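Re-run with default settings, no changes from the original entry. Doing this only to confirm the output is reproducible before filing.
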Amino acid sequence: MSERIWRTIAVRIKVFVKKNCPRCPAAKALTSDLTEVEQYDVEQVAGLAEAAFYGVLSTPSIVVVDQDGKEVVSWRGEVPSKEELIAQISQ
């Protein structure tokens, strides 16, 4: 994803993962080159608290929030394609 595109969109991506999750590496890879990404390990207290706040019950989960922390779009228990992620956050 182009950093230029990313900077024009005022959102943050929250990625929820855990150690033995088979699809979590794909979620991490999808967002690894972005600057506005926060990664949470749901097996840690802080990660579990953040997951509870957003209603995340499965991993991997990707939650896109606006600058006020309001959920814009999410994928729970799945990893979107890069194209799908761009399309959703560009709307």
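Helices lie at 3-7, 24-31, 45-53, 82-89. The beta strands are 11-17, 37-41, 61-66, 71-76.
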